[in-house]
Specification:
Layout (H helix, E strand, L loop, with lengths): L1 H8 L3 H58 L2 H4 L2
Length: about 80
């Protein structure tokens, strides 16, 4: 609130230009940091989902082949 009050009192064109430049830099850094956070969270989520799918496939390959051998005779005849 105090910073806004000080900025409203500034009359010099050079000071206004400096404030606008810092405002632009601050907004740019905010956008970059937010984008990096969103991208890293998305990559982490996709990686976790991929590992879960791969583990599911591996577990099925390991255990489903044994269970197929145990199925009754009538299942193979269909």
């Amino acid at each position: 609130m105090q910073l806004e009050h000080i900025c409203n009192q500034v009359k010099d064109k050079n000071e206004v230009a400096i404030i606008e430049e810092y405002n632009y830099i601050a907004r740019r850094h905010t956008i970059i940091l937010t984008s990096k956070k969103i991208f890293s969270d998305l990559c982490l989520q996709l990686t976790c989902n991929l590992w879960l799918v791969l583990l599911d496939i591996i577990m099925c390959m390991m255990y489903c082949t044994d269970s197929i051998k145990v199925l009754p005779y009538w299942v193979y005849n269909d």
